[in-house]
Amino acid sequence: MIRACVLLSLLALLAGGEPASDPSTAGQLARDASERQLGEARSRRNQEEAALLGRLQAAVAAGNAARDRLTSAERAAATASAELATRTREQERELTLVRQLAERAVVAAR
Questions:
Q1: Long-range residue pairs from 14-17, CB within 8 A, at least 24 positions apart, any chain
Q2: What is the pTM of this model?
Q3: Range 47-59 burial, b when 16+ CB lie within 10 A, else e
Q4: Is a pLDDT exceeding 80 seen at residue 44?
Q5: What is the DSSP letter of 22?
Q6: Are the C-beta atoms of residues 20 and 26 closer than 8 Å to each other?
């Protein structure tokens, strides 16, 4: 990667019309340019990684919040189901008592 950047930078310097009187200077300039480009690429990559990490952390937090809400809703549903079962049993007992009273009233009326 660095070699390719050095070669491209060297070609750019030569194509730019600058005299290459000292090959070591031209090579050093090309190496400096390639190192600068590599540093910029690393910086961009680090920024992208940081942004992706932030998005991932936000997604994990949202997932955890959704899981907590679901757990809470499941607990509430279980409580409501238990209460419904209790009330249904109570109503059935009351209905049985009403039927018994109605039967007794019919028997007493005869």
A1: none
A2: 0.53
A3: eeeeeeeeeeeee
A4: yes
A5: -
A6: yes
